[in-house]
Amino acid sequence: MTRDLLVFGEDWGGLPSSTQYLITHLSTHNKTVWVNSIGLRRPKICLHDVKRMWHKMTSINHIVSDQTVLPNDNFRIVNPKTIPAPQYKLERKIASELIAAQVKPVIKKAELQSPILWMSLPTAIDVAEKIDHDALIYYCGDDFSSLAGVDHETVRQHEIKLVEKADLIIAASDSIAAHFPAEKTRVLPHGVDYLLFSTATKRAKDLVNDGRPIAGFYGSISKWLDLDLLTQTITRLPEWHFVFIGAAVIDVETLSQFDNVTFLGERVHDQLPSYVQHWTACLLPFIDNQQIQHCNPLKLREYLASGRPVISTQFPALSPYLEFVITVKTVDEMVLALTNSIPKGINRHQQLAVSSQTWSSQADKVSMWLDLL
């Protein structure tokens, strides 16, 4: 695929995402302009939102930061200033005109010619009418109707229009694809940076090393974690150490009171193998709600690529890997699964199961689909 790309996604360089992985590979041979997030909800009066708004308002239009790492020389970023998640007709009109006015000069400077318009955020759809494009792609990696931190009705209104206008819809799972017209929807499961997570690396210096086996989790420490299951399991297993990596956006005092629990905070994604490869077991302890039923976490395949035992509560995205994932419902089952994982080493069959599911291979499929448009 050699056609130019205009991408509306989340903020480039933030948390790793399927869109960033795919576009990194697709942009190798084409000129690409990436437009940072225009939001999925109204900002709130809180420290996190105020900081984010200040960053967006003070960033230079096409250069987010001198430290921003771009995938290649053909890649440019636009950091638009606009109305986040516009809801009403006038708001949507103003927002789309503001974004188009900021994006068009960058398109011209980058010399994009009738690009393929790729949208990972439904709230960008109004801009499509104001920018020349060759085709419109909706890449849907989440079920926005159940996703936390989203203005659901506003996003639903935008998504209806995006689904109608899209030439191709790419869904990250069968459950998400079921929401869209079958005749123009394809399913693309998430890939994995296989070499990063399967290649042996040294133990992180700050990873606890007190002789106890380690049960680890990385990702957003949010309300979709089953805190009750974790609390009871940790109480039952004082001979284990439980390590959490990621930003805590909920009160974790219940867990942090235990002397066998460590919260390490956020870590750069490329550093994660130096932790996960040295855990005894990897955890996916989610509650059962609509968001989790539609989720397809990137960490699932990363855990599998590390070769370490994976213990998880049940959700549909596990289905292709049930041979390798131990699913649990109760505290007793979690305790037993962890205890049985102690003597296990690297599972080469588990690694092999995801070795062909690289982001490069997934991007090749997308490239083929785009060529057919």
Please, could you describe this protein's structure?
With 373 residues, the chain is of the alpha/beta class. It folds into two domains: 5-191 and 359-371, Glycogen Phosphorylase B (Rossmann fold); 194-354, Glycogen Phosphorylase B (Rossmann fold). Helices cover 34% and strands 15% of the residues. It contains 14 helices and 13 strands. The protein has helices at 18-26, 47-58, 89-110, 152-165, 174-177, 194-198, 227-236, 253-256, 273-276, 290-293, 298-306, 331-341, 348-354, 359-371, and strands spanning 5-8, 32-35, 75-78, 116-119, 135-140, 168-171, 185-187, 214-218, 241-245, 261-265, 281-284, 310-313, 325-328. A seven-stranded parallel β-sheet has the order 3-2-1-4-5-6-7. It has a six-stranded parallel β-sheet with strand order 10-9-8-11-12-13, sandwiched between helices. α7 links the parallel β8 (214-218) and β9 (241-245). α7 crosses α12 (331-341) and α11 packs antiparallel against α13. The longest helix is centred in the N-terminal third of the chain and has 22 residues, at 89-110. Residues 41-67 have low confidence and may be disordered.
CATH class label of the largest domain = Alpha Beta
Domain module tally: 2
Low-confidence stretches: 41-67
Q: How does the helix and strand content classify structurally?
A: alpha/beta
Report the β-strand fraction as a percent range: 15-25%
Bin the helical content: 25-40%
CATH homology-level superfamily of the largest domain:
Glycogen Phosphorylase B
Average pLDDT: 89
Give the overall silhouette. Answer: elongated
Strand order, sheet with most strands = 3-2-1-4-5-6-7
- Tell me the number of helical segments per DSSP (H or I, 4 or more residues long): 14
Record field, number of beta strands: 13
Q: And the CATH topology of the largest domain?
A: Rossmann fold
Q: What gyration radius follows from the Cα positions, in whole Å?
A: 21 Å
Using the 3D structure, state the CATH architecture of the largest domain.
3-Layer(aba) Sandwich
- What is the rounded distance between the termini? 11 Å
Biggest β-sheet strands, sense, barrel: 7 strands, parallel
Helix-strand pattern, N to C?
EHEHEHEEHEHEHEHEHEHEHHEEHHH
